[in-house]
Amino acid sequence: MRDRRFIRITEQEYSTLPTDVFVQCLVSLIVTMYGVVHIVGDFREIRANIQLENKTWETAGNRPSFYIFSHRGRNLSPNYSACDGAYGN
Q1: Does this UniProt record's set of keywords contain Cytoplasm (predicted)?
Q2: Higher pLDDT pick, 85 / 32
Q3: Domain of 69?
């Protein structure tokens, strides 16, 4: 911001980024990359197979929370009567 104001005041043409801003960005990028790679520590692998060892393919895809018995199927088919007794329709 300060550099742009200076350029406007002196009525110079804005063509490139000032050198000090470019150097600051480059140094901060290098420091950040070094910090992420070296200082954070060792990565550990995520072992999902431990949880899935005792499950069969039938239980892996089973989702009881998605069971829906009052759905729009009864409105789409005139012969659909599976839920009529349970819901009093």
Answers
A1: no
A2: 32
A3: 2-87
